[in-house]
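Problem 12. The chain below contains 217 residues. Write out its predicted structure in token notation.
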Amino acid sequence: MQLLAPAPGEHVLDIGAGQGVLAPHVVVRGARYTGVDASPRLIAAARRRHGRIGRFLVGDARRLSLVKGLVGGSCHAAVFMLSIQDMDPLGPILTSLDWALRETSRVVLLMTHPSFRQPRHAGWGFDASRKLVFRRIDAYLTPMAVPMKALGEGRATRSFHRPISSYVNGLASVGFAVDAMEEIPDLASPGGAPGRGRDPRTEAEIPLFLGLRARRG
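Solution.
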């Protein structure tokens, strides 16, 4: 929300909105909220929870121009909150974003940090000689689709890893320049024991999330 900074009268588009958890935080600042998600089930849940304050539409992030109720060039800002890494390919998504946003606009991406948190290609290790917990990185520059374990009765999905340059350059291709970045660590609870044998001091130094904001116009 610090990066998004919605202002009164603005129209914010939440792409991959899920159950619409951002809606009340946007609306309380006087902005209008529209959430789009490819899952009818999640959109139905969003409407039950937040339908009085926001608008929720079923749609494909790669084809926003086909979403009934969306008007091209009508949104002041867009946000992908932990959703961009579930979407592929990136090019059509950014072209679609370009269609939805005004000439003067901004976009915020929040994701697990691509440099340190690649699914199945990064993990914690322990250097016994130095008594040091470290983060092991097996791959970074190569884009990849990583199969993810299904949760409960849900279907198995894929996480699409891309280096940070893919996002910066992709946003630039539709006229956006990154002007702010936040790297957010996984801090241990005060007084709590480190989880899974990890060192909370190390976790405080190696980011869990990356937030990027880009502007144009």
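Discussion. Confidence is low (pLDDT under 50) at residues 191-196. Students who got a different answer should revisit the alignment rule from Section 12.3.
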